Amino acid sequence: MKNPDLNNPILKNTAQKNTVQKKVLTTAALVALLFGLSACDNSGEDNAEDAAANEASQEQPQQDEGSPEGGEGEAPEMPEPDLGDVPEVVAEVNDAEISGEDYRTAYESQFMQQSMQAQMSGQEIDEEQLQDQVLNSLIGAELLVQQAEEDGYEPSEEEVDAELQELAEANGMESTDELMQMAQEQGTEEDELRADVQRQLKITHVIESLEVDEPTDEEVQEAYDGFTAGQPAPPEGEGEGDAEAPETPSLEELRPQIEEQLTAQKQNEAATAHVDQMREDADVQIHL
């Protein structure tokens, strides 16, 4: 079982970028999708505020990466994960096995992202907690895949092709041929990558089938208010000749992003409860 990766953090050097792209091709989609189920403790409004902030920031000039002031400088050395001995099989979920290789790859991908966040926040990574979260995410992913198969859902070749094209574009490529070439250079064969995408589509199918309420106007307004309240005030003493501060986007401009993020949060909450229920009825054996 291989598990694809979806979230790409802001990368600070080419070596880090290549490593994360490899994880995108081998572990990210399933784990990133389920990682939020076990590790997310933000409210939907908080996440929607982040989405609004990201949308607004895209119109603002970016500092050069390197040093905090935008000058040149080397990125700090990334810490190494401490996994210790990982067994060949870390868990059994009903009749399926989660391999140590899949667990290690998923953990290293999440550890890299957490390390980048830790460098910015100054907080240390709780590796024991992270290991539990990644393992539980993999178990949850397997349960969702099994449900999709029990429901008789099998992604079509057209669906897989469309998802591969989207993945290629997300990695800055013009075609899936480029994606396949990069995958092969990094040890992932085409049939393996297609199997990863099929698993991702099965998980997405189950999660999107869960009924959730649409975001209300009140929820959207609350998220927008939280976003605008966090915007910095213009520096004192600015005159007419000074550069204008970036204008805060209106609620209607940000509404699509806010609604999308709130819906995703509701789906995550529904999926969390759904996975918890499935796990109660499943035969799960952990060997880690």
UniProtKB/TrEMBL annotation:
Residues 276-288 have a biased composition (Basic and acidic residues). Pfam families: SurA_N_3 (PF13624). This is Peptidylprolyl isomerase. Residues 40-90, 209-288 are annotated as: Disordered. SUPFAM superfamilies: Triger factor/SurA peptide-binding domain-like. InterPro entries: PrsA_foldase (IPR050245), Trigger_fact/SurA_dom_sf (IPR027304). Residues 71-85, 210-222 have a biased composition (Acidic residues). It comes from the Bacteria. Residues 50-65 have a biased composition (Low complexity). Residues 260-270 have a biased composition (Polar residues). The lineage of its organism: Bacteria, Bacillati, Actinomycetota, Actinomycetes, Micrococcales.
